[in-house]
Amino acid sequence: MSSKIRTKAELKTSSTAEYFAKNLQQVGFSSPTKAVLTTLKEAFDNSIDACEEHGILPSIHIVVERTGKGSTKNTDQVLVRVEDNGPGIPAKELPMVFGEYLASSKFGRGRCTRGQQGIGISAATTWAMQTSAQGVLVKTKTKGQKKAVQCRVEIDLKNNKGIIRDKEELDWNAPHGTIVEFLFDGRVQLNGEAGLQAFLRSNVLVNPHLELHYKLLDEEEVHIERVSDKIPNIPDATSPHPHTMKLGEFLGHAKLFGNISVKEWLLKAFSRVSEQVMQDLVANQAVPKKLFERPVNDLKEDEFKHLFTSIQEAPLMAPSTTSVLAIGEAGLAKSILRLGDIDYFSVVTRRPAICDFKPIQVEVAIARLSSRNGESIPHEEDESVQVIRFANRVPLQFDKASCAIFKAITTVNWKVYGLKQARNSVPSGPYIVAVSVVSPFIKFKNASKETIDASDELVEEIRRALMQAGQRLSRHLRKEHKEALLESKMQHIEQFAPILVDGLVRLTHSDDKRKATAHEGLLKILGRDTQAAEKELMEAEGRLEKHLASKRKTLGAAYDLIMARENDSLEDEALDEDLDLDEEDDDDASPKAKSKGKGKGKGKSKAQKKGQNKKGSIPEDHVIVSDLPAAKGLAKKGKSAPLKVEKAAAQDKPAKGGKAGKAAPVAPIEKAKGKPKAAVKSKDKGKGKGKDKAKKPATGTKAAPATPVKASAATAKSKPAKKSSAKATQAPVKKPAQAVKKEPAKAKAAKKTSKKTKGKK
Amino acid sequence: MNMRGKVLQHDIPELTAELCERLLRDLEKARRPVIEATKCSLDNAIYDHKVGFLTPGKKKIRTELNVASVKKMSRAIFMLEILLRNIETGAVNTKRELYYISKGEVKHNKHLKPIDFVEQEESDAIIDFICEILECYREELNCYANDRGGQTYSQQLVVTESLSDGGRAVIDLSALGTSPFQPKNRPQNLALSAKKKIDYCLIVESEGTANTLVANGFTKRHNCILVGAQGVPSNAVRGWLKRIQDQLQVPLYFFGDLDAYTMQNIYRTLKAGSAASLIRNSNYSAPEVRFLGVLPEDIARYDLNDYPVRESDAQEYRALKKAKDALENDPFFRDKRNKGLSDILKWLLEHKRRCEQQALFTVNPRDPTMPEKIIVEKIKAGNYV
């Protein structure tokens, strides 16, 4: 809860309490049903925002109860209690947090937090006051406090001020945290798209670090453990990008930096404006050179205007991507598994883009459920796919028809990707399509933040992400189809081979011995061995692709570059589908790997694939890359101990992988427990393809802190990866001091591997 | 295994054994068996006027044993076994009967279930496939069709048929009254002789018109053989005419409609065989048959009723389209010796009109023998191509 408050200076207040009190429908209190959800949502969002902001792994307890009959018609009196382990709220800030509209620690900060304006929780308090004549009951304790503070906060609507009542100090054995309790009129809807269950489940989906316990009415209490110990690092806001500004904002921005020179101002107050850019402005946009040396305050309005339009014309680098926070593939993958068993999953994370002058990033996850509640689901299920919408990691549940995400989904032609779809509607099948839009400035249609405004630019951006996801899905479906076809071919052979041989034997009056040999020969020609090899190969490719998808996340900036290229040739997207595997891989490979791959041909790129695969779905941040000299040394030694996985690759594809088997000195790095970057880089080294390639890897590396390794192959997911780590431990190379945080979900795998390792030692 | 040229029925078991032995040997060595069959299509057809009929070129269709063809091959071997049994016992069957026989086999042996034919088309295709492999006619596999056409009238012709049981049947066509003799199945089993010198053989496209001519006394007044072709000639008609040409050494004249369909599909097939039957044209074409009419100039000469080809006349419309292609690609029509015939095609293409054989009846509506008179006059005057 405390996140709303930082320092007093940051709070902005306005006398709008009365306005909101009269227009609560605008902020999500349009019906008793929505009142329950909105209240829960506001409290929950604040809790989780506060935890994240203070680096606390959120653990949230929710209770929703019917306590009696409501004061208004057809309503119940509902109690919503949200307890978090957040930082707590200093007592003096309580009235502002719960009792004052537009008081927020987050307003206009340009960060991807759930809350933004400072309306929601005050509106919930207002609703409670209006329907049950009592404000919110808050119990909070900050770190270091001996006793918790409990009080009731009400709103003085006339003055838009919070009023504290019944304040008392209590004992609370939690080190810090906040409990809020609303008692109000409402109706509880548990199921359905707009139900509480959907809200909580969707939150579970995008918050792998969340531990959640909830008890809804008479249902059994649900406990959801966290699957990630990583608190999303909410990026700080960056200086604004000139292209994301309107003229008025530009003028206003000029006043914030004192009387400095225009040059200084541009460099300091904006991102992506460099000296070079200014030189270009002089050269190409006829901006007088002298202008840059003059103090900002001296500029006249038309000079500002000219400067502004010139900058708008100038080609600038895209806005910084660091201010948007994506959920990330790893997070989505882990979370989605909490919804049921899936047999297909892929995530497309778009490069951050500018839509309607604001940086925005779109992520799409598509998963196919193989079972739900323990029941398996046929692939042909006719129900519409489950669409889950997120804006800044907050699930959107209402008014889906006018939402940009929904519009994008219905305008994509899913049939070409192998899904059933009625015209202009969502496709059908046992799929979950999760779309997340993240931006420091999401344009909601209304203050209740239920729908994202469907501007053409945004819809197009989401569509592109969906189409990319669709292409991957269709690749997978085709592969499945191929496999099924192969299976039927095998059956075909088994059916006809004996008939053919028997017939021939009878017609030639041959003996049983000939019959047996001929049958064997026939199977050899058509059957088992060659087909089996083919199947194996296809399976290997299938595995490969799965891991390739997960690798995208780890590619970081390189991936952005690739996506940029893809954007340029969006028309070719349909073609992408038909690219053969090798090209696909190029898409996935980092630029450096790519240029190499091209130079060396297929065998190599396979090797790279394998190498990168091993990364599995390790989130980048979990990995600390070894420093360069170490990697170098390892690479050299690695040559003498070629990696098992590489050999496996060679077996899978003898023609292609043979070369790779010899050359790949990845093994020792694997010892560092799935250090993706190190692995790839060391390979680069080992292959020694010229100086600048050798340099490149160096740039991204960091010195490794000597943290103990907790779980050896904690993140190693795939078989090859497991193998490699096992093998790696045998390699006569010293373990570089690197660390990976242990992840509970992978603990099993880790144990297994470490057991193996021990045995070998 | 060179199986080009004429295959006799007594060769079939031998050829089959040879084929099966080769396939089995390949399988034993885990070598992929390949069956080659002559490609029967126009692009593999060669026409030499000295030979007189379309012969196959060097193109082959290779059927390699693989996943896709294993079903077809096992079915072929299965069917071959049935056919061989028929040849051994002398039993004959139609394609439909063979379809039911194979159904019966499957019914009594559940291991054969996978090769069960669902439709007759499937078993027909397999029989044709066997013919292609062995380069034989299906009649040689004792698979007979109920051939239509070929009703033959003559006061002079005597036919001696050698029967499968070794006996012989002698048919004197003059003794049949108004009933025609109709060749069936394997005309190669028929030996022909003439009681009296036969001047020519007239083949009329319409069996009905042939009938009329006979009823009106054509065969009484002329020493000839009169055959009704009944549209596109069946194997029996084609083999029968070949027999007449070879054994009686009489000139043959074809009289039919003046249109692209008759020229390409009926007359060309009688004279030089067809692209689809490249391997059996040697026995199923009579290169000496001449085109008596209707000729384009006959329309003016006899003031015959003709009419333009309409789009609604799908068959002829298609044939006209094909004629253009035939003039460019059909070795028969491209041969200089057949210039007269290709000129007719060109005339048809140019004028897009047709004139039916029955138009002769308009010349003198009250004289039933007028068509006969015109035909005889044309033959005497050498008024044919």
What structural class do helix, strand and pairing data of chain B support?
alpha/beta
Considering DSSP H and I runs of 4 or more, what fraction of the residues of chain B is helical? 40-55%
What general outline of chain B do the C-alpha atoms trace? globular
Terminal residue distance of chain A: 52 Å
CATH-wise, what's the superfamily of the largest domain in chain A? Histidine kinase-like ATPase, C-terminal domain
Radius of gyration of chain A: 30 Å
The overall number of domains of chain A is: 4
Count of individual beta strands of chain A: 17
CATH architecture heading of the largest domain in chain A: 2-Layer Sandwich
What does this molecule look like?
The complex is a heterodimer of chains A (761) and B (385). Chain A is of the alpha+beta class. Helices cover 44% and strands 15% of the residues of chain A. Chain A is built from 27 helices and 17 strands. An 8-stranded mixed sheet of chain A has the order 5-4-3-6-2-1-7-8. In chain A, strand 3 (136-141) and strand 4 (148-156) form a beta hairpin. Chain B is an alpha/beta fold and 385 residues long. Chain B has 2 domains: 9-141, Arc Repressor Mutant, subunit A, CATH 1.10.10.10; 152-380, Dna Topoisomerase Vi A Subunit, Chain: A, domain 2. Chain B is built from 13 helices and 14 strands. Chain B has helices spanning 12-28, 70-89, 95-108, 120-134, 207-215, 218-221, 235-248, 260-272, 296-301, 314-329, 331-334, 339-351, 370-380, and strands at 34-38, 45-47, 54-56, 60-64, 152-154, 157-162, 168-172, 190-194, 200-204, 224-228, 252-255, 289-293, 307-308, 353-354. In chain B, the strands form 5 sheets. Chain B has a 5-stranded mixed sheet, sandwiched between helices. The two termini of chain B are 41 Å apart. Residues 1-6 of chain B have low confidence and may be disordered.
